[in-house]
Amino acid sequence: MTYRILTPQEAACYINNGDGVGISGFTLSGTPKAVLPEVAKRAEEAHAAGKPFKINLYSGASTGDTIDGMLTRAKALNFRAPFISNPTVRGAINEKEITYTDLHLSLMAQDLRYGYLGKVDVAILEAIDITPDGKVYLTTAGGIGQTVANLADRIIIERNTYHHTMGLHDVYEPKDPPYRTEIPIYKASDRIGKPYVQVDPKKVVGIVEVYQPNEQVVFKELDPVTRKIGENVVGFILNDIRRGVIPASGLPIQSGIGNVANAVLKALEDSSEIPPLDLYSEVLQDSVIDLMEAGRVRAGSTCSLSLSQECLQHVYDNLDFFRDKLVLRPSEISNHPEIIRRLGLIAMNTAIEVDLYGCVNSSHVCGTRLMNGIGGSGDFARNAYVSIFMCPSTQKGGAISSIVPMVTHADHTEHDVRVVVTEWGVADLRGKGPDERAKLLIENCAHPEYRNMLWDYLKIAKKGHVSHNVAAALSMHATFEREGDMRNTDWSKLV
Q: Fewest CB within 10 angstroms: 84, 243, 282, 478, which?
């Protein structure tokens, strides 16, 4: 089949007010780059003429300013799922200008197929190429490409010749109940699917030619706090290996994205006692490529190559080395609970705050303001061999304690959080009752400036299986919102 070549403007005309639009990609990697900015312009023109124009946008995870930012500024978004990181769309969601559903990333493709989220009218896939019989070779991320292509009435291909990752993808879509069977992945390097997304050629309305790298996210340099967190995590893993809790051969690791995750990976690289490991994760950062070349990571299974341009080019230049070490999967598979539990992952994710009994808030500031969303942390936390949550003990120059009596938004309950790590130490909560958990979190993880305050809270708490003072449980947050510093909390006013 011969496909039409479209300009971005022509392709945008296939997207109309009220459409559900599903896109490829995961984080800033592998997302379309040319068509949706033109959709934003169409929305602006429609609004100027007094006409409605909004779409529902479905993705694998967050996107960048080219999608979420531009569409938000154009007032072109009605609904968004499952995860965001762009500050513009975050602000609009918090102002209730956009309806947002926060989902476990493993559920996004499934919920679309089940019909929970509405119709997918158009799919936009960023690809290296498409064959006449509809084989679409994606670029740097898996995401939900196969699912939205199956569901959509119309498909637009952005052929981005900047990329050449052919051969890295392993595209597999599980059947839905009652026909679902085992997903046969038994080690990180296993391949069970196809290296391409199969689409119906008749649904492809055209190809948009693109030559453009992924948007880039810039991480801060590691500082003493993040470095110490990384060292504490590695120390914990080493101790579990020495005790025989973790096998001497090691277990696959999952690491989130960001500075704290980078610090952990750096500490793993520096520790000769940690055996070479596999990575089974939703994202893969520059530090993992370094670990592969150093022989510290044997194989990396991921949904997204979230790499700097320089590092990605290095991978492209050395594909013969990386081809049998990297596997790019759909997010439904990279985050699937069945596989996470089977492989026995050491899962490491970031918390915003942790309460005295181990409940974790990873998505909302002071209980109301969305940060990014739960992402994949819940997929991994509940099903991992050991689930580790990491965070600095304070924020805002010490004005906020990350260890609090009660979290203002519970993403992960005490049932799923096994280990908490800050720069001050490690709280191993496995097999501990509530009182023991509180003691470990205060003594090992809280900042020294807040330890006495937290002990004093427990003195005014009503005793039970879990001890709390309902009237005072959120007072540290209330003090911060009122005075800008949790350290000003006075329990005596609440007794």
A: 243
Strand ranges inside 15-54, DSSP E: 20-23
Same domain, 195 and 249: no
Q: Are 255 and 182 part of one and the same domain?
A: no
Q: Which residue has the tokens 């594909």?
A: 319
The C-alpha torsion from 265 through 266 and 270 to 272, rounded to 10°, is 10
The DSSP string of 283-350 is EE-HHHHHHHHTTSEEEEEESEE---HHHHHHHHHTHHHHTTTEEE-BHHHHT-HHHHHHHT-EEEEE
Do 192 and 237 lie in one domain? The reply is no
pLDDT of res. 397 = 96
pLDDT digits (tens, 9 = 90+) for 437-488: 999 999 999 999 999 999 999 999 999 999 999 999 999 999 999 999 999 9
**Enclosing domain of residue 410:** 224-488
Q: What's the rounded Cα separation, in Å, for the pair 40 and 198?
A: 28
Distances (CA, A) of 119 to 60, 142, 228, 299, 325: 16, 21, 47, 37, 37
**Domains contained in the chain, number:** 2
- Omega of the bond leading into 82 within 30 degrees of 0 (cis): yes
91 and 196 in a single domain? The answer is: yes
* Annotated catalytic residue, options 38, 269, 282, 332: 282
The pairing of beta strand 419-422 with beta strand 425-428: antiparallel
Q: Is-above-0.90 flag for pTM?
A: yes
What is the rounded distance in angstroms from the CA atom of residue 346 to the CA atom of residue 383?
A: 10
Token duo for residue 409: 């938004």
Q: Encoding tokens for residue 252?
A: 């696959």
Q: Assess contact for 362 and 412: CB atoms under 8 A.
A: yes
Tens digits of residue pLDDT in 241-263: 999 999 999 999 998 777 888 88
Identify whether the C-beta of residue 486 lies closer than 8 Å to the C-beta of residue 399: yes
User: Which helix (H) or strand (E) segment is 99 a member of?
Assistant: strand 99-100
Burial of 389: CB neighbours in 10 Å, binned 0-12, 13-18, 19+ = buried
Handedness of CA 216, 222, 223, 227 (dihedral sign): positive
Which of 229, 44, 66 is closest to 160 using CA atoms? 66
Contact 48, 15 (CB under 8 A): no
Query: What are 312-370's pLDDT values in tens digits?
Result: 999 999 999 999 999 999 999 999 999 999 999 999 999 999 999 999 999 999 999 99
Does 273 participate in catalysis according to the annotation?
no
Asked whether residue 215 is domain-assigned, the answer is no
For the beta carbon of residue 201, count every other beta carbon within 10 angstroms: 16
217 in any annotated domain:
no
